[in-house]
Amino acid sequence: MIVRRAAAVLAAITVIGGATAPAALATGPSPSSSPALPSGLYGTGDPTYDGVWRQSLAFLAQHSVGVKPAAKAVDWLTRQQCADGAFAPYRANPAAACDAKTPVDTNGTAAAVQALAALGGQDAVTAKAVTWLKSVQNADGGWGYTAGGASDANSTSVAVGALAAVGEKPAEVRSEDGHSPYDALLKLSVPCDRDGGGAFAYQPDKKGALAANADATAAAVVGALGRGLAGSASKQAGAAGCKTADSPERAAQNGAAYLIESLAKDHHLTSALPGADPQPDYGNTADAVVALATAGRGDKAADAMGWLKSHSARWAEQSGPAAYAQLILAATATQSDPRDFGGQDLVAKLSATGPEPDSGKAAASSSPAASEQKEKSDGGVFGVWWFVAVCLVAGIGVGFLLSGRARKQQ
Questions:
Q1: H or E element: which one contains 310?
Q2: 3-state secondary structure at position 220
Q3: Domain membership flag for residue 286
Q4: Which residues form the signal peptide (predicted)?
Q5: pTM for this one?
Q6: Looking at the 3D structure of the chain, how many domains does it have?
Q7: Whole domain around residue 368: which residue ranges?
Q8: How far apart are CA 126 and CA 75, in angstroms?
Q9: Domain annotation covers residue 226
């Protein structure tokens, strides 16, 4: 994203924007009809900014529940890769060679690595992608959204997940200046004696100050523990509370403590579009659940899981595959049943947004109900991406819309 999860913007605009979106959303240009999308792609919304991202999350979620995606879906993702190993968010014509204008990014590339490594059989693709990621590592050890961009917590964390997915040791992947990804993350950990102590910042502000960012914190907790987007349920938690972040593990536990405190009152996180009141942030809440489970604090995520089960159905239906994937990953990380998630079968709903899976208990995607879900997935928001593009160009970042999801400071 200048964003880790551009797909989540759909949630901000459809759920938050239902009554309170900026006037620009209502008056901006909107295509009269949607162009035909590849049959192997998950979702029906404009994939310009999130095609690879949502496809990768869908694969990770399906893998976590034993569902094998269709071969044509996997083929669509691998064909999005450029010759140098990087992935663009969406290449309408993958037969055309990438050039200097192709908008490749670290987030989609790292997510694709994680997804394809989980599925297996794609070593050549993932090796090229990891080689590219290493080639654009910043001097401080981290990564920005684009090659050469300033390091941020989210991009660095998703890159760590990619390295770990292919068997690399992130601590040993060092820049020419000798810094590892963990060095970059530690620099973004807010000291305990500061406002928001224990959290991670997305990036330092122009004066070098660190501002707590819940989304960056959820990402960095997982990254600092050397895990990927799917997280990993753990029963080993460090000492509670915020203590000096003298190691990646300690910084992760500090971040977990911050998330626990942030979830304590309402059991969910919030975000706001410019000029609008804060609204529930479903995706960020799901990511926080994954982070807490990975940090061995899954018991502290129980209330947030209960809230998601009761409140996330409409958001997920409107937002599409990435949203269903986030909820599935939260469920599996906390050993909940994603096939009975507040009365929903998340696995069936995710599978219905794409081609019928090759194997696994995934629900009948050829059923009338599944076909209706495919039509609804990402529906009604095709014309909002012009606004996303404006945010990116202006440097606001999509993340600003979702508690830092692109991610300038809140």
A1: helix 302-311
A2: helix
A3: yes
A4: 1-26
A5: 0.84
A6: 1
A7: 6-394
A8: 14
A9: yes
